[in-house]
Structure formats: C-alpha cells, structure tokens
Specification:
8-stranded mixed sheet, globular, about 450 residues, about 40% helix, alpha/beta, 17 strands, single chain
C-alpha cells in the first residue's frame, strides 16, 4: 500500500493513454481477453456497475468488477462477482506487476495510482479468467485508464458539472470526455441526460457508428414504489419487461441505474434475461456509502454526495424513503467542489448541522462549509476539527426519532463508517487518488 499510495501524483499528468498502453503491451494485453461493459457519467456510476455485474453473475458469467473509489479498503475495488480480491492476493498481484510499473516509469512516464490499480485489475481478471469485465470509469472517459479495454457496451449515467477545470468548464465539454468510452462496434446505453450532454453523446455515437439505447425511449423504469429496505421496481428493457423487482437501494436515481444495468446485460447477451436471475441479482446488491443505512434509533444514513446533482438526488431519496423528527447533517467536503451549492441543497432539509473537514490536504476549510450551511438557512451549525468529532456530536445531540445524514465526500463517509460498522484495516484504508472520477472521492482517477 505504501508503494501504491506513492504513485498518487501531486499534479495530474497530461491526459493520454501512453502509460496504460505500454503496460498492456508488457503484460501481453490482458484487457483484450474479455468483453467489457464500461460505465461513466457524473453520478450513479458505481450503482450501475455493481448492478450490471450482479445481473451478469446471476446469468453464469464469471465477471470481473472494477469500481472506484473505495470506502474502507482498496480491495473493495476489485472483485470476481461477489468475491473481493483478498489482501494477500492483492499483495501478490501487485508484487508481480511491480517490475512492469517500474519499467514504464522509466520508459514512458510514472504510472499513477489509478493506472496501477486498473492494470492490476485487468491482469487479475485475465488470470481467473473472467468471462466479462464490468468497469467503472475513474474520471471522464476518453483518457481514463479503463478505456484501453474492449468496450462492447458503454453505459453513460447523467452528465453534470463536476471535476470542472479538469474535464472541462461546461456540461458539453465534460460530456465530450465521457463520450470517449463509446467505441466503434459497441452500443451506447444512455441514461436520461441534459439536452446539451445528449447532443454531444449522440454525435459521438454517430461518429463511430454505435447504436444508441436511450432511457425513456428504448428502456426505462415503468413503475416503482418505496418498500421496506429499499424499493420495488418494474423495468422495461429492450428485449423484455422485468416485473416487481426488489431493489435494496433508495431513490429514483438508483432505480434508473438498475434499468440501465439490466439493459447493458441484455445488450451484451443480445437476448432477454432470466427474470428469476434478475430478481435474485438486484436483491443481492450492496453499494457502500450510497444512501447506506448504518444505524437505527437514531437512523444514520451515509452518502458520499459531493456535487449539486448528487445532493439533489440525496434530498429526493430522503424525502421519499424516510421520515424523521429532526434531520441532523454532518458535512465535510473538498475545497475544489461546489461547497455552496451542495450545502444549499442539503441544508434546505437540515434542522442542525455539524461542519467538519475530511483528513485530506484538499479539504474545504470548516468555516467555509459552516458558512455555506448557515447561508442555506440552518440556524444551528457546529464546527468541528474532524469528521469523527462531528459524528460523535451529532450522535450525542440526536434522539431516537431523528435522522443523521453524513455526506459531502466519500472521504467523509470513509471516516464515519467505521464508527458504525467496525474499524477499517489500517493497511488498506483509503487514501487520495486524484485520478479517478472518484477523484474527489478519494484518490480518484
């Protein structure tokens, strides 16, 4: 882990795939040994990735799953169906690949944290061997390390403003980067998009001759209702309709992600899916840090929302799925995010707030977070030096009928979660990877 974390660059290198292509060449192209579903977008990528993988596994496909960021342990990022890579296996694989990383460091340029993890995932999948890869893009798409893979299906979740200045300054520019995963010979499965993003995605698909399957037109959620522990949904796919599926996740965004994931698997297999297998797959899905309930009386919900669209989705899901006497918000964010917009949205529901800073040099000052929450109309805003202190203060202030929401960053969730579900292993605890769409979110692409 020390060697891996040392690969987190102080400054992102110029966008290119030269280092990844060199690694794949030295490793004899493990990325070419399995078809892939790639998933990008601004929000909802991890949920769609995990659901698509679960559906594929339920249909008998040995599926390698790669997600980012992780919440507690880097081993969360790589799994074969529901089995994450073990710590010893991760160490052995990294040790085996280390000389190749060193070689590319010298000949091409220093391999980044996210590139090293992506190469490790591809090599591990090839060794198993995996019959399919379901890959969450780290950041963007065109120059993302995952984009050396075979992309038979490209899933694009809603595109909004995030990583502004890195991916672009407008929705159109960001969409153009994410559209890069749509490849010749592939199919684009597009979640509902802003008009300006959809125009860019359509243009890319037409340029490479990729058919488009569009939410609302070609597929969608036909019906859904809140249920104990999540919701029940009916999905209209492109080959069949899947009735009354239990999804143990909250909110409209999760339901729509499930629909896109089902359609991605239909598209890959070019047929309707087994309804019983789909039902079992959805019922098994767990997505840590996304509207995750980790405590009762008071209710405690963790969500890593760190941009305005994600914050709006959290507010909608809370209103739809939960009730409370008072909502207590623990918020800690990164300084390169739109703190004021996120706090404005989350703060609209809050009765009290506990502002803090995640343990990262990229943390927004506590005063900035507190001032943004106060500006949103939260009258009672406390200021704390750490997420742990803020969580403890919220817990002390809460009564059984209250709801505590911990949000603002996946770093924030990672620091809070062990207080409810047990300590993280210090050897594999998350650190920052500026290279993933998870960037914020921890070291991200």
């Amino acid at each position: 882990m020390r060697e891996l974390e040392a690969r987190t660059p102080e400054h992102m290198p110029e966008p290119d795939l030269d280092r990844m292509r060199a690694l794949m060449e030295f490793l004899d192209h493990p990325e070419a040994l399995f078809p892939a579903i790639q998933v990008t977008g601004t929000n909802g990528k991890t949920t769609a990735t995990r659901i698509a993988a679960a559906v594929a596994c339920a249909h008998g496909l040995s599926t390698g799953v790669f997600v980012s960021p992780h919440v507690l342990s880097v081993t969360e990022r790589l799994s074969l169906c529901a089995d994450p890579i073990g710590e010893q296996e991760f160490a052995d694989e990294y040790e085996r690949l280390g000389p190749y990383f060193d070689l590319v460091d010298v000949r091409v340029g220093r391999v980044t944290y996210f590139e090293a993890l992506t190469a490790l995932a591809f090599a591990w999948f090839a060794d198993k061997p995996a019959g399919l890869g379901v890959l969450e893009v780290g950041m963007g798409g065109r120059w993302d390390a995952t984009n050396v893979a075979r992309g038979e299906v490209a899933v694009v979740c809603p595109v909004g403003l995030d990583h502004v200045g890195i991916l672009g300054d407008t929705v159109e520019e960001i969409a153009a980067e994410k559209a890069g995963i749509i490849k010749p010979g592939g199919t684009a499965v597009l979640r509902e998009q802003r008009p300006e993003a959809l125009a860019v995605l359509r243009a890319r698909a037409e340029e490479v001759g990729a058919p488009i399957l569009l939410e609302g037109k070609d597929f969608g959620v036909e019906w859904r209702t809140p249920a104990v522990g999540g919701q029940a949904i009916t999905v209209r796919g492109v080959h069949a309709t899947y009735l009354d599926l239990a999804l143990p996740l909250f909110g409209d965004a999760a339901a729509r992600g499930a629909a896109a994931a089902i359609v991605a698997c239909e598209t890959l297999l070019d047929r309707s899916l087994d309804s019983s297998a789909v039902r079992a797959a959805l019922a098994s899905v767990v997505v840590p840090g996304r509207m995750e309930v980790v405590g009762r009386r008071p209710l405690v919900v963790l969500d890593g929302a760190h941009n305005p669209d994600a914050a709006a989705a959290v507010v909608a899901a809370l209103r739809e799925s939960f009730s409370w006497r008072r909502l207590l918000v623990v918020a800690a964010m990164f300084g390169d995010k739109d703190v004021e917009a996120v706090a404005g949205t989350i703060g609209s529901l809050a009765d009290a707030a506990f502002a803090a800073a995640p343990a990262s040099p990229r943390a927004a000052p506590v005063a900035r977070v507190a001032d943004a929450l106060a500006a949103a109309g939260v009258e009672d805003v406390g200021r704390f030096a750490s997420v742990a202190e803020a969580v403890d203060a919220a817990g002390a202030a809460a009564e059984e009928e209250d709801l505590i929401l911990v949000t603002g960053s996946f770093y924030t969730v990672a620091e809070a979660r062990p207080r409810f579900v047990g300590p993280a292993d210090a050897r594999t605890r998350r650190r920052a990877d500026p290279a993933s769409d998870s960037t914020e979110e921890g070291p991200t692409t």
